[in-house]
Amino acid sequence: MSEPVRADLARLRYFIASAFESVGMPAADARTVASLMAEADLQGSDGHGVIRLPQYVKRIRAGGVNLHPEIQVIGDLANFSHQTGHPLPGVSPVAMQQGRHAAANILGMLDGRKPQRFWYWDKGSMATIGKNKAVADLHWLHFSGLPAWIIWAFVHILFLVGFRNRLVVLFQWAWAYVTFNKGARLITRNFQSEMRPPK
Ligand SMILES: Cc1cc2nc3c(=O)[nH]c(=O)nc-3n(C[C@H](O)[C@H](O)[C@H](O)COP(=O)(O)OP(=O)(O)OC[C@H]3O[C@@H](n4cnc5c(N)ncnc54)[C@H](O)[C@@H]3O)c2cc1C
Fold first, then answer.
1. Does the beta carbon of 95 lie inside 6 Å of ligand 1?
2. CATH class of the domain comprising 9-61
């Protein structure tokens, strides 16, 4: 086994930051990333430390890394897990909170302030699973069936943007409800064993 290499922490940070700056990363960002990578080495998490530097530099040179952190990714497109260690689910409360947060960040940055970190306020989840059927998990209260479906529908309409949208959706839902018209068709065919790929 090879001997571990010892390096002065300040010099290590400077080295990493300089490498990033040389490929176009803004100085403040380069210093932040350098600190995090050096910290990873200190914590013994080598896989995220300086050993990654050549790979990151190569990726930046190839245009595969966004050097503009002012661009925000939110909603279903984002993978965000710093709060719990688990990625936040792709549901509308996450997308709405992230949307508001991103808007506030962009306005703040226009005023010269730094973007703030996102914290998710988990008020619970609701999902509809069919006509008159839904599940609601409000942490302190779990319920399902018709009551959950009515509340799901009410909350859904409440959060739509604009009175006209609310009215249109309400009308469409009412029409679909009385005519049994299915908005989305689900594939419910049984899984066929012969569809499995050959071993
Ligand atoms: C069938 C289904 C049922 C769901 N049920 C629930 C539920 O019961 N409860 C719940 O909390 N969540 C539910 N979700 C999840 C919820 O809808 C999503 O998490 C939420 O809509 C994500 O919001 P978003 O803004 O990230 O993306 P979206 O709502 O998908 O918005 C992205 C928008 O960008 C537009 N767009 C895409 N590409 C471009 C482009 N190139 N240029 C311009 N515009 C573009 C799209 O048209 C779309 O309007 C459900 C999702 C699905 C598909």
1. yes
2. mainly alpha
